[in-house]
Amino acid sequence: MLSTRLITSLWDVPREWIFEYYLNITENLTGESIKIKSIFNPSDKIPSMIIYFDGITGQYKFKDFSSGYQGDAIRLVELLYNLTRDSAKDKIMFDYESYISKTDFSASTPILAATRFKLSNYQIRHWNTNDKSYWTSYNINSTMLENYNIYPLEYYELTKDKGDFVMDRIRIEKEFIYGYFKEDGSLYKIYQPKVPAKKFLKISDYTQGLEQLKYDKKYLILVASIKDLLCFNLLDINNIEAIAPDAESTVLPKEFVESIKMKYKKVLVLFDNDTTGKKYMQRYQEEFGFIPINFENEKDIADSVKIHGIEDTRNKLFPLLKQAL
């Protein structure tokens, strides 16, 4: 299918595509670092230019030891065509739109290091003041997080066997990295709230909050994330327990749905107040009879608690839940 979308922002252009296209890299970049001969030095006999994934920014960058040039994808195009930064951005968007108009193209989630790399190592650390500042803005404290097996990480490493590529290991070490663990201690997801390009790295499938259910309440509600789940618990609404699929677009298996429907009088679903959230609330309603809750106070429960506080969020959500039940 040929794409007809218009490229109106540089954010529409995958950064890995820029390197693949302008450097004629024939294999898709999926998080690995590679070494090639310098594009800026034709006499380069030994590969001295590294294309690498920067875990801090969530983007690809380059460093050319032969010429001394380094930077992001836009800088690469600046240097290749002797352009200003703004002109380089315009060229990238024009070339990408031309590329997808001639290519059997379908939009996909941005490729990230963990897509094909495997988690090989990580280190849990102590909570610090930065963690406190971030989580308490949602009224969530470390005790609540640890009850759901969420801990801060010092770093994590991803590795991958990749033929003759020079580097096959990525180590991410910075503030605001959190590991989501199962009761058995295995890590199922990494959360990086300060990396907009890729906040979540999924390690394995897991229904969040499932192991914490007590099955002592009449109703169950599906929310969009573990952060929403914790904020929902803060509202102290009687007779409702909460779980969260590992993503809104991850539809729970039919067998699992039938089992939880037997344990609860009714099942509700409260996803984000956006196109994706509404789409999957409708799907759960049509396929399983779950009752959708259209909460429009903010994008999600967590943002509502952060911006308006616990009491205001409860006062606005409670009538919707009462009406549904």
Description:
Helix 6 crosses helix 9. Strand 8 and strand 9 form a beta hairpin. The chain folds into three domains: 92 residues, DNA Primase, Chain A; 89 residues, no CATH class; 115 residues, Dna Topoisomerase Vi A Subunit, Chain: A, domain 2 (3-Layer(aba) Sandwich), CATH 3.40.1360.10. By secondary structure, it is an alpha+beta fold. The protein has ten helices and 14 strands. 29% of the residues are buried. 32% of the residues lie in helices and 21% in strands. The strands form three sheets. Strands 5, 6, 7, 8, 9 and 10 form a six-stranded antiparallel sheet that branches. Strands 1-2-3-4 form a four-stranded antiparallel sheet. The N terminus is likely disordered.
List keywords for this structure.
DNA Primase, Chain A; Dna Topoisomerase Vi A Subunit, Chain: A, domain 2; 4-stranded antiparallel β-sheet; 6-stranded antiparallel β-sheet; 3 domains; 32% helix
Largest sheet: 6 strands, antiparallel
- Could you name the ranges where pLDDT drops below 50 across 5 or more consecutive residues? 1-5, 104-115
> How many helices?
10
Structural class call reads: alpha+beta
What is the count of β-strands? Answer: 14
Whole-number count of domains: 3
Task: Write down the CATH class of the largest domain.
Answer: Alpha Beta
**What order do the helices and strands follow?**
HEEEEHHEHHEEEEEEHEHEHEHH
CATH topology of the largest domain: Dna Topoisomerase Vi A Subunit, Chain: A, domain 2
What's the gyration radius in Å? Answer: 23 Å
Strand content: 15-25%
Helix content: 25-40%
What does the overall shape look like? elongated
Mean pLDDT rating: 85
What CATH architecture of the largest domain do you see?
3-Layer(aba) Sandwich
Distance between the termini: 44 Å
